[in-house]
Specification:
Oligomer: single chain
Number of helices: 12
Radius of gyration: 21 Å
Strand order of the largest sheet: 9-8-7-6-10-11-12
Structural class: alpha/beta
Bound molecules: NADPH dihydro-nicotinamide-adenine-dinucleotide phosphate, 2-oxoglutaric acid
CATH superfamily of the domain at 200-354: NAD(P)-binding Rossmann-like Domain
Shape: globular
CATH class of the domain at 200-354: Alpha Beta
CATH topology of the domain at 200-354: Rossmann fold
Largest sheet: 7 strands, mixed
Length: 429
């Protein structure tokens, strides 16, 4: 390693500052020995390209002024513009947004989309604010990050607690500031604004497609398979419904309001309605409540974490009895837990592959916006399925070649693509 790389890291890049960014750095370290001569560029992956922290001052409905902290991080743009969602959550930190941006770089490259990785967030509990307040916060945030986003620079999308309406406000604000309607600046928009059919369900559908492929590879018929799902929002709710419709039994679901269980299988359509009406899974029809920790010890065929990072850790990994884990969430498994699960022989489909369906249909949306020519939902779902199958087979091929887990294989494939692009682009303007 060159002596220049031994300079002290900026504090926010220090692996000693644990948190999601530390987890990502450890994942990169684990894959570096497999990168061959491209390992010389690996430091590129350990530093985000651009980090923007913004203050968002907003007048609340009662006339007081509140300030929120917002972020937009572009981790890597070697293969194309930055791409990644915007999260509204009270626990959002810079470390988290940096890790989420980096996982976007890896994800886009693992599926071979022409994007780099980016992510954004606002440290806010959106449940405490009115729709009008959220609109003002979103518009101010968009203006503040407006100089670094754009259809050829960085394209936001929905993530936790953001949705098509959030994207509509972002698109409108960006367009007003540009003086031209610019639909391609965000994806996950409403259909009336150039959104793509199939985007809302795309991440959950991708989880279902690769989860089904993993089940087949492990000799588990989806029909009758027992499935536990943590997080019952966009990703977890859709994945649960698709597995349910394919004949699987969703035996337990957990969100913030509680954990519900039925060994014969929950009625997922009624559960979705219950969540819509009550705001959470607690008290779902035909279910018994479990305490939150019991969820992790349930005997199940497939476990789908679809909430937040770090949910599977040293403290609960040993109790997990699933045969397959399909990571709908970003970063749900810590590296320590990953080792425990691998030692137990549990087959893991990693986040950067399992939840890539969302960004894949975002790519379709971006392409449709540029050509102003829109595809049918069947075409979109068929293309999504094809791309997810291709990515799954190619990562499984790398795993077999190197005798490594799917996570390591996905990182090998993705980091090699990113660093090859970095190398051939050269360094100087
Ligand atoms: N939306 C997308 O297209 C994509 C999302 N992802 C990832 O998928 C995950 C879920 O995102 P998404 O479904 O969009 O988000 P949503 O906001 O739609 O849903 C999040 C779900 O997780 C639950 N949850 C949050 N924290 C906890 C917790 N500590 N314990 C149990 N449940 C919890 C929420 O429950 P409650 O409402 O009770 O808080 C809610 O059911 C995130 O990691 C996200 O980054 C990845 C790729 C694309
Ligand atoms: O659709 C996108 O562009 C990004 C979705 C996202 O944030 C993710 O995959 O984690």
């Amino acid at each position: 390693m060159s002596q220049h790389n031994t300079h002290a890291l900026p504090s926010y890049l220090d692996p000693g500052h644990l948190g999601p960014w530390g987890i990502y750095l450890e994942q990169v370290d684990r894959v570096t020995p497999y990168l061959g001569r491209q390992a010389k560029w690996v430091e590129t992956l350990k530093r985000p390209k651009r980090v923007l922290i913004v203050d968002i001052p907003v007048e609340l409905d009662d006339g007081t002024i509140a300030h929120f902290e917002g972020y937009r991080v572009q981790h890597n743009v070697s293969r194309g513009p930055g791409k990644g969602g915007v999260r509204y959550h009270q626990d959002v930190t810079l470390s988290e947004v940096m890790a989420l941006a980096a996982w976007m770089s890896v994800k886009a490259a693992a599926v071979n989309l022409p994007f780099g990785g980016a992510k954004g967030g606002i440290r806010i509990d959106p449940r405490n604010y009115s729709r009008a307040e959220l609109e003002r916060i979103t518009r101010r945030y968009t203006s503040e990050i407006g100089s670094i986003i754009g259809p050829h620079k960085d394209i936001p999308a929905p993530d936790v607690n953001t949705n098509a309406q959030t994207m509509a406000w972002m698109m409108d604000t960006y367009s007003m500031n540009q003086g031209a309607t610019t639909t391609g600046v965000v994806t996950g928009k409403p259909i009336a604004l150039g959104g793509s059919l199939g985007r809302v369900e795309a991440t959950g559908r991708g989880v279902f497609v690769v989860g089904t492929a993993a089940a087949e590879q492990n000799g588990i018929p989806v029909e009758g398979a027992r499935i536990c799902v943590q997080g019952f929002g966009n990703v977890g709710g859709t994945a649960a419904r698709l597995f349910y419709e394919a004949g699987a039994k969703i035996v337990a679901v957990q969100d913030h309001t509680g954990t519900v269980h039925n060994a014969s299988g929950l009625d997922v359509l009624r559960l979705l309605k219950h969540v819509e009406e009550t705001g959470g899974v607690a008290g779902a029809p035909d279910s018994e409540p479990l305490n939150a920790d019991e969820f992790w010890g349930l005997d199940t065929d497939i476990l789908i974490p679809a909430a937040l990072e770090g949910q599977i850790h040293e403290g609960n990994a040993d109790r997990i009895r699933a045969r397959i884990i399909v990571e709908g969430a970003n970063g749900p498994t810590t590296p320590e837990a990953d080792d425990i699960l691998n030692d137990k022989g549990i087959f893991i489909v990693p986040d950067v592959l399992a939840n890539a369906g969302g960004v894949t249909v975002s790519y379709f949306e971006w392409v449709q916006d540029f050509s102003s020519f829109f595809w049918t939902e069947d075409e979109i779902n068929a293309r999504l399925e094809r791309m997810m199958h291709t990515a799954y087979s190619s990562v499984a091929g790398v795993a077999a070649q190197h005798k490594v887990s799917l996570r390591t294989a996905a990182f090998i494939a993705a980091c090699s693509r990113i660093l090859e692009a970095r190398e051939v682009r050269g360094l100087y303007p």
